[in-house]
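User: Can you write out an input/output pair for a complex, sequences first and structure second?

Assistant: Here is one pair. Inputs:
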Amino acid sequence: MERKLRGRGMAASWYGIARTATIDRAGAWAELDDGGTAKIVTGVTEIGEGILTLLAQVAADELGIKPSEVTIGDNDTARSPEAAHAGATRQTYMIGNSVHLAAREAKKHLFEQLAEHWGVEIETLQSFDGEVWANDTNLRITMEEAVAICKGRGVVPVGSASFTAHGTGLDPVDGSGSPWQTYVFGTQVAEVEVDTYTGEVQVLGIWAVHDVGRAINPRGVEGQIEGGVVQGLGQALMEDYETVNGHTTTHGFAKYILPTSLDIPQINCTLVEDHDPLSPLGAKGIGEPALVPTAPAIMNAIYDAIGVRMKSLPATPEKILQALKSKTPGREQYVQEARAQRAQSHRG
Amino acid sequence: MLTCDTYHMPTTLRDALELWSEAPEGSRLVSGATDILPWAREGRAGDVHIPSLIDVTRVAEFKGYSVANGRVRLGANTVYQDFLTDGVLRRTLPCMPFCAIWFADDQIREQATLAGNLANASPVADGTPAVAALNGTVELARLEDSEIKTRQFVVSDFILGPGRTVLQPGEIITSVSLDSAAGYGGSFQKVGQRRSLVISVACCAALVRADNTGCSFDDLRLALGGVGPRPMRLNAVESRLRGERISRRTIYAAAQLAADEVASRSRQEYRRSVVIGFVKAGIEEALENQSDVDVKFEETEHA
Amino acid sequence: MPKLKIDLEVNNRKMSKETDAHKRLLDFLRDDLNLTGTKEGCGAGECGTCSVFVDGKLVKSCLMPVAKASGSKIQTIEGLSDPGTLTPMQRAFHKTGASQCGYCIPGMVMAATSALRENPKADIEEIKERLGGNICRCTGYTKIFEAVELAKAVIAGDMPEEALNEDDVGDSYIGHNVRRLDAPSKVSGRLRYAADMKMHDMLQMQVLRSPHPHAKIISIDTSEAEAMDGVVCVITSNDVPEQTDGFGVFVHDQPIMARGKVRHVGEAVAAVAAEDLVTARKALAKIRVVYEELPGVYDPEEAMKKGAAVVHDYAPDNIVKHIPVRKGDVNAGFANADLILEDDFSTQQVEHAYLEPEAGIAYVDADDVVVVISPSQNITHHRHMLSHILGLPINKVRFIMSPVGGGFGGKEDMIYQGMLAVVAMKTHRPVQLNFTREESIIASAKRHPSRVHYKMGLKWNGEITAIQFGMISDGGAYGMSSEGVMRKAAILSCGPYEVHNLSVDTTAVYTNNTPSGAFRTFGGMQAQFATESMMDMAAEALEMDPFEIRRINMMKIGSRTHTQHKLTAASLDRCLDAAEKESRWENGPPNVRGSKRSDLGGDDTRAPCTLGARFKNGKSTDKERVA
């Protein structure tokens, strides 16, 4: 057997967006502020996924200003409306849409005032990147001026919204129900090299394709996929929290092995945008879906390389060497059985 | 958490020896501190109070290195990063850069000393086989009736067992001396492409010199780590190959001999293929890394 | 406490200070100089978040006793650039989206800066090596590498400085790569996480944790600890109202501190609040707890057997939750199958390993509002539970989310905020708790391990006729998110395929192991690991390409899911097509074709890593320091 053997594998996946088997909800407040800036306040839980930036983009897009002009308030039970938690790949969907709707309402109040002030129909008004104008006229001002006009007329352009996702509970006997109103799908391909002397696996390439509905910030989505893939790789090959009779033997990072720079495959992301028809933004989510297919794609690739099926994670070098040693020559047993059965059924 | 009463940083060997011999019970010597601080934490030693910590990294006599009479004398404060950045050390100690690049990471290499690593005597320390392959000796100093006395040990005699060395109370390592192996090719094999080891299996340090025709082994040194409490020089393999025609066949046979030696000496099951693979790859890579000779394998000649 | 005097220069500022002899350089920078950009992600030299320059060399300051720094010039993240400016490296991190939670980022910027200082021409392999001592859990490193290469090009003049500016927007901000709003605060080390925050008069808290996996608490004597100089209070479950004590995401089975018995190693038993950290730790050692060890259960299948030790009285069978899903008729489905595969799969408990260990501060404000500042993933739920437990009106409890240095589900459980609140209420002083890494690992929940028994029936044409899926998970000592994880695993179990006959059972079981809880995918990846392995095994048996067998079975618009939900949208076909195309997949059954494939080793893969890039290329800095 050659020392280094390569192979490829793939895996498909699906996931649900927002809280499972229940109704999910998120609230938000928006205000168009002095200087043509905006304040957005919502229970957003930024844990590194980039939701703050995304919300700024959503608000900016709806209001017609720049994302850098949006200030997002702190997440504080005494200061912000409930948008609940970071989890269930829900924030883009629940809070993104909620902010979008709140911003829409704030803008509506501004446009109502401006339309009256200019004597135009409200439908002719548009805003983008800090400017407001009325179509088919030469009326055009900055958002800063528009806000001043609105406030001068005694109206503070504020808006609020609550967005709902309708999931139903599951039947206690057969589990039937509609746990989410939106699903996402994905596929990943992995290419690996296995060192048959040491059992080590290097993942050289990952192709990750995920339906995100609509990519509000494509680079941010890629970042989530890359982070998810590497966590998947870690679980596939090296991470193992071990306990013996309740006592851990992996106390710290010297024993609990995490992927470092040296372990990272080239990650090639492709985003599929199957717009969600049930929400104003059409976006879905990526945080958790990104992690689902990675480990099986890697295990399938290992099988392609060395013909051993790793059914227990993590597939450490030790386990792989052991599997290589005990592998019976030839194919997996069911392939042979399947052939025999098929031959028999054709004969029969 | 590590707490202490006093932290000393003596600047001369004499001061260090005096402090060390007078230090209260439970005191410790500190070199790079890269072993002691992770040790004093939950899951390992827990909270540890040490009366006196004596840090030897400012001792003037431990600084730098010298090359003389075919030996390189490394002061005790030589850090692992030096094997990567110092041109003289890279040239005279050809297996050390490959060993060092596997050692932790850049930051820790700037802090961790070779001497401290040897004093720790971990059976899975990477430095020890590389030092053994270079016929490394350790010099220890002590105070005897106010006089500084020294004694030397070959590294495999210096280490007595896991975590145990010949260091007596009051003794401090002053230097590690190694063969100057300029002109040899070096290599180092280790399991674990990650910074940290998943399984503590063998590592292998190799030094080879082909003769100037590139056809036979003038000299080779092989040492395994992680196969027992002490580094294992593969003397039988070395004698088998010295003077022999360089060929993949004989290298592979020698590697199998190495695996047999390991299996007979250690109680743990080291997979034969790992040791065979390491020794084979170790010799072949070291041959490749010998920069001034064009190595000619027997097999390619007949091709 | 013993002191020492140290003269050094930090960020170009010369100083002479007295500090505690035991401190590490890390503690000195963070506590004495308030330079909190340098972090303690692990304290054991593994994660790199503590990296600083000492006399021009990058070192891990958690491994450096402070005395070693005397006479040295230190540069921290705060000292890389003047106030209000960012270095090209920092700007590159901002541009490429290299910072996510930001906790690893100051250390990573330092390592990247060091890499290019050591070798401005370093190639990507050498860059990766030089970053090898820094762990990131959020980004997958990819955009960090991109940032370093971008900075390298700009510094070398190969690319203009404008390359670091934000891209111009097209006609919409939706779909635009807007740079992260919070990146500047993270790349400069200025963002303060909970452990970086300081309040006047603040106490330090430490928690006494159970050394036993299952034991009755016979008595706790805190008198010696309370009498110690510098100790302000010691709390136990006696300080929490018994009737209402209990929190949890789905079931409120976990007390703020152990009540009556401990159920896992690392469970909180008591807590000390003192004037400083060292005193608090010393006081822990003075608390005398008398335990009576109980037989424990450490395996979910053992725990389900009759006679097994019972972890929670309310669940005598040790079942946390069982979720069934049934569709069609599996027996008929298997009878109808041409091929039946049956196998077992298992996955391990996984640690979140967010770089920021848990931390928090609590205080009572002038309006008697109990305020808790922590990186909680669900302050809404935490406030609900805490106000109920403490018997306070909900608007007299305030949860503020501090910047989160990584969550992934691990910061969803309210495992320490209750103790902080109790101490704050008892002392009317602010109190801070910073977990060590080791504490975080044993006290916080893990990803559920899984054992799956899988039976799949297929026709020769590749159609799945039936699936029987059984998953058992060790839920550990407390319920945490086990119910939700089992539910999600059950719903997603059989994968994105239309299966007309299925029988799915997922079960989480109480044991005396470290609890399992919420962790990115909530059971989805464990279940689909098994499914996607089975699909490839089926593909091999049927001699079909793995994409082909997925297409034959995939869900489409109008398909009914395993829970009989009719889909009005489905995109797996597009995902499969794109993956096949982008990866240049060579068609064929998964029958160990690796050595024969032609689609390997493309430009879209990396070279295998072999250490030594910096000298293999023959070019690296040469220094000679002969004595």
